[in-house]
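Researcher: I've been going back and forth with a colleague about how Chloride channel protein might be arranged in three dimensions. Neither of us has a model we trust, so I'd like an independent prediction. The organism is Cobetia marina, in case that matters for your notes. Sequence below.
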Amino acid sequence: MSRPHLPRPSLDNFRRKLAAVDALPQLCLLGLIAGLLTGSLMVGFRLLLSAGALGFMPDDSPENFEGLAPWVRASLPLLAVLVIGIVLGRQHPAQRKLGIGHVIERLTYHQGKMPLRAWLNQIVVGVVSVLGGLSAGREGPAIHLGAGASSWVGERLKLPNNSLRVLVACGTAAGISASFNTPIAGVIFAMEVVMMEYTLTGFMPVILASTAGAVVSQLVYGAEPAFAVPSLLLHSLLDLPWVVITALVIGLLAGGFVHLARQQERAARLTWSGRMALVGLSTAAVAWWYPQVQGIGYDSLAQLLDGQLALDVLLALVIGKLMLSAICVACGVPIGIIGPVVVAGAAAGALMGMLGGWILPDQASDIALYALLGMAAMMGAVLQAPLAALMALLELTHSPNIILPGMLAVVVAGLTCRQLCHCQGFFISTLTAQGLHPLQQPLMQALSRVAVPAVMERSVVSVPRRITRERARALLESKPVWLVVTRSTPEKPMVALPAADLVRVLMDEHWREQEALDLLEIPAQRLDLAPIHLQATLSEAYERLLPSNVDALYVEHTTAPMIRKISGIITRDAIESYYRYKP
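Model: Here is an independent structure prediction for Chloride channel protein. You can compare it with whatever you and your colleague have in mind.
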């Protein structure tokens, strides 16, 4: 006996399931795809950096600026800002926005849709800024590339916009995971910094994406983290007061960095050429004496943890690297800031560890321990992401014993930066300085998790304004809920009326004598309609209804070129009912 043929699930069914808030299997599949794609892009980006270093960098290492002659390493930033200035200077200011801040902005205001031009700009600027010796990291470009590519996949498949948001979070997590080899920190970073919310439907696909990104990176670069970390323990609980003081100092440094980076308005008084010159000349001046401030700085961080850096170099990493990175951001050079912030925080922690060793030589813990605490404290304070910083610390050290002082350091530094320096976090602060408000209200956050098809009424029939009684009876045989009356002139809005009202008219003796019915004249409830696309989220639908004079939206999608079909109707009451009684 042959088995009955089971039809394969269509892409339309896949999209329809994704529209709901509980589409975990479908979202997990997308998360896995996003993680593999982002991990591959991260590996490709690192290989591009290595290929770019061939021939002119000592040992073909993209971070070995110390091996270059002073005039060479000082010339590289000037050449880098020249290239970046030419590439970005001819474009609209909106297209110069790159990196993590751009991802958050697109997620907040554009449902995670990423423009291709900015994505291509990120490749060029990311490679040039690192190889050109600016104080820049690779994590920001990796996150932008991963989030942009993941979103592009969703757009090409015409997935609902609520799933595009999850894809952006998946690309973010995989970017951090593949860069540091810290999958848990990647998940927390995506939810804490980019999505700014924790949900079950968000966690599972993001975890899969972060795992896949780490696996791809480990297949090429091995299972070791971005830099070697020695095994360390807190010497004594008597060290905790000094840990608090260290965190206070780092919190103040983090606040100063964020405030300096926010000076875009002042920097904008200069011409574009003047800003590029300021970035290039300031970096060249410091790099002439201290090349450790150039590039990402992970090689310097590894030497720092081994105790191989002198006091003046540590000071240069703390002050010079923070200031140069902040000047880049303020002047409009879109660099990655996570790497420089981590390195500067480790240097600040090492300096405080040295000072603690001089004050209490018998009780102080190892300087490398303070360097790691400083790294986590600076990252947590600048980003206002304490959980991501703690998870990074745990995964990099593989030592749960360091979590106790790490928690104390991260919380104290974060509070100091937030309360004393009045900083909300680097990306929130820089976007707020541009007049943007990336923090969404709880209502809009909840509505953005669901797409219109999950709530709309699908029992809809399009009808002309005037129909015969026979035609009306034929339409009602399919038992529609709403009738959409099409207009002959596009200037006037479309109108919907309940099918039940038409049934009552057909049964009314007063209307039985009329062979033709005018649906805009019969006694019925009518709703003025405005269009919205099938891929939109409930937050988009709600915002579409708020400023308009319409009562509901008709959902349309393109079935063929220049042919649109009405798929359903969504009312304000339906949206509010979903939010009030959502599972």
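Researcher: What would you highlight for our discussion?
Model: I'd start with this: Residues 39 and 213 are 4 Å apart (CA to CA). After that, consider the following. Residues 1-8 have pLDDT under 50 and may be disordered.
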